[in-house]
Amino acid sequence: MRLIRAAAVVGAALAAGCGSSTRVADLQFTEAWSGDLAKGATISGLAALPDGGFVVAGEPNAFDQNLEAYVIGLGPDGAQRWRIDGTFSGNSIGLGSDRAGRVYLSGALTKEATLGSTKLTAAAYPTSFVLALDAAGAVQWAKVYDTKGSSSAELVVADPSGVFVSGRYYGGLTVDGQTAKTSSANAGLYLLGLGADGSVKTLKSFTSSAYVTGTGMSLSADGDVFITGTFSGVVNFGDLPRASGNGQAIFLARFAHDGSLRWSRHFFGQSGLGAEFLGDGIALFGYSYATDLGAGEMLRGNFVADLDGSGAYRWSHSDSSFYGGTRAGAVTSTGHLVLFHEHRDPPQPGDYTAQPLTIDLRAIDGDGNSVASWTPPALAPQTYVINARLATARDGTVLLGVTREASSPNMPNISTTLRALRLVPLD
Question: What DSSP assignment string belongs to 99-125?
């Protein structure tokens, strides 16, 4: 199932989703369970397990200056099954899972750190790591990069054969003897493929005359990897040099499971992007300042776009009638694209007071129709979304994790709420 050419339909869907809970089809979101993490805790990673449970990761206390992280396993009912704590930054975690129940965790490492009883040690420079957990939270193996500068590892996707990890790096990057291109003072981008046993399958790297960074990654049904992000200067993914012109450009590249490039595309404009593979195409979503994905018109504001399996434009829609953007997206087992938005109404002329913050979920079906939306009560004007993550289970449950900050006269109040929702027929 894919999103077909239905620009007008999707346009109406996004507009209806901005601050509205109007149902426009025969489905609705119902809440299965909800809960709050401990005060001050944040969320930076979220993944689904085959039995309907989830794994959540983040920082246990945003006000603590120590490097700390938590990883929690939840059952299908939201009850905690297990927890392990780490001594690395919980703000820069990547999290993925496969159908076999393995969980892959990536993060940043300054020198030495632990996750439970597992010790992680950097050779010399700040670096990154990736490790595998079983469904009970036991560490199966761990890999620490050897860098000659620094690196990050925020993007993770997995299938039963292993895991792909992507992030930025400066200087040199080596994993188990495989070495990336040297990246000078500018950030490079890497794609690391590991087997389910932790063996290195591929390491690809891409450098730019200015910078290149990934913002979204997804796996197709046949195991191909899509990476999207932004760059400035000139970058070559293996087919031809791509230049950003005078500003920033967006890239989309498709790689085979062995890391070989199938194709790459670039588009002029500025945008924050996520990507999810749908049927025979790829859905891009996010917030755009000014982006042309091939239609000859600029996308501005909240947007969703559909490209085919070769990266060719099919349709898109954007809406700039409100302040905010799309912060997260995921695809359900039934083929619905679920998007999380945050937005505020524009202020009235002469009124400089902050407007209430509204968040919502919008589900789009394979024909591009909006089938359901969910909007909780508006949050206070001084509230801001720090992080938002979405994951979907096989039974169709959508887990939304939102970390928000509410300003107060004394100090900010940071809290994280988890809500599990299901798409079900209307009553």
Answer: TTS-EEEEEEESSEEEETTEEEE-SSS
Both tokens of 322, joined, read 């409100």
Residue 200: count of CB within 10 angstroms of its CB: 15
Q: How many CA atoms lie within 13 A of 362 on its CB side?
A: 31
Task: Please name the amino acid found at residue 314.
Answer: R
Return the CATH fold of 7-425. Methylamine Dehydrogenase; Chain H (2.130.10)
pLDDT tens-digit map of 166-211: 999 888 889 999 988 877 667 889 999 999 999 999 999 998 888 8
Q: Which residue has the tokens 């983040």?
A: 58
* CA nearest to 253, candidates 211, 285, 289, 206: 206
Question: How many whole angstroms separate alpha carbon 336 and alpha carbon 30?
Answer: 15
Phi, psi of 283 (to 5 degrees): -100, 125
Dist. CA 106–CA 29, nearest whole Å: 31
* DSSP 8-state symbol, 89: -
- Residue 377 has a CB neighbour count (10 Å cut-off) of 7
Instruction: Tell me the C-alpha distance between 381 and 387, whole Å.
Output: 17
Coil vs helix vs strand at 10: helix
Give residue for tokens 């349709």: 315
Give Cβ neighbours of residue 101 (< 8 Å, ≥ 6 apart).
49, 50, 51, 134, 135
DSSP 224-287: -EEEEEEEESEEESSSSEEE-TTS-EEEEEEE-TTS-EEEEEEEEEEEEEEEEEETTEEEEEEE
The whole model's pTM is what?
0.89
pLDDT tens digits, residue range 262-274?
Answer: 999 998 877 777 8
- State the DSSP code for 353: S
Q: Coil, strand, or helix at residue 127?
A: strand
Residue 425: what are its φ and ψ, rounded to 5°?
-60, 150
